[in-house]
Amino acid sequence: MARIAMVYHSGYGHTAKVAEAVAKGLMEISGTQVDILPIDAEGNLPEQAWVILSGADGIIFGSPTYMSGPSWQFKKFADASSKPWSALLWKDKLFAGFTNSASMNGDKLSTLDYMFHLSQQHGGIWAGMGMLPSNTKAATRQDVNYIAGVSGLMTVSPADASVEEAPLSGELETARLFGQRIAQLAQRWSRV
To answer: Tens digits of per-residue pLDDT, 83-100?
Structure first.
């Protein structure tokens, strides 16, 4: 059994929708226990979250990209993770991350890079997408990995799109497949 904790912040509901798709993929892989830990509007975690994170085999980070980086609520969580850091509680865990922003690029890579470096501060092992982009002339926004994420999952929700409208189904399918990948890797990693 691999235990994966997903800790994320969602400002308007779009990133939560991506987290749901990732969680769906995680749960489709038998032998995977999933703990979903949303960060609230004040940057706080649910009760027992730190215990769950310390007991997980893998941790998935999620945040919207605001002004070229993660939300302040996610940063508050990251700063608070200095307590488990000082005891090396997350060392050798599998890590991955996802982000959503209003623009096609929107500096999402900066947010994923922040998450990557946070995982490395904790002595973790980072897992990227592991899938090719849809980059042919025939490709559309409904194709898997159209945004061409490599180091982590990237999705788009235009600024005027409701949660019902965005992210698009192709991006949510990419999120589901990303969840499956992380669950499969966590199972392999937990046996090491």
So the answer is: 999 999 999 999 999 999
